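Example record

The entry below shows one chain as it appears in the dataset: sequence first, then structure tokens.
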Amino acid sequence: MRNRMRIATAVAGAGVAVLALAGCMTTYPTESFRGDPEEPLQSVGGEGEGVMISWLHQGGQIALTTWGSSSCPVVGSDISVVSPAGEGNTVAITTENPAADQICTMDYVPHTSVFWTPQEVITGEPLTVQVLGEEFVLPIK
């Protein structure tokens, strides 16, 4: 009986660990904040284009920075793999403007959404990021 309890406890613990690890790789932003990302490794795009894509944390995260109204920012809501490494290494970031139906301020400030880099893409080849009808190519990290 004791061995069965130990086995049941071990199996339950392993299941919790698997669920915890699976939860680490989410498709929604891990952070969303006003401003630029701190210490990006490499970036493409910029304020003049209204969008910047950056590698963060040694390539473990991807940041989307958009410029626009501080009261109605365009934010990243989801990241998905379009083609995995070796077959295009491409992701798409979906955006939303949750306050679009409100009166927005006429300022022009950055807003950043940070995502975990999907496991199906790699930093060892250029990463194409599709967002807001455009494509940006992050160089090899």
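Notes for this example: Confidence is low (pLDDT under 50) at residues 2-23. Strands lie at 31-34, 42-46, 51-56, 61-68, 75-83, 90-96, 109-116, 127-131, 134-138.
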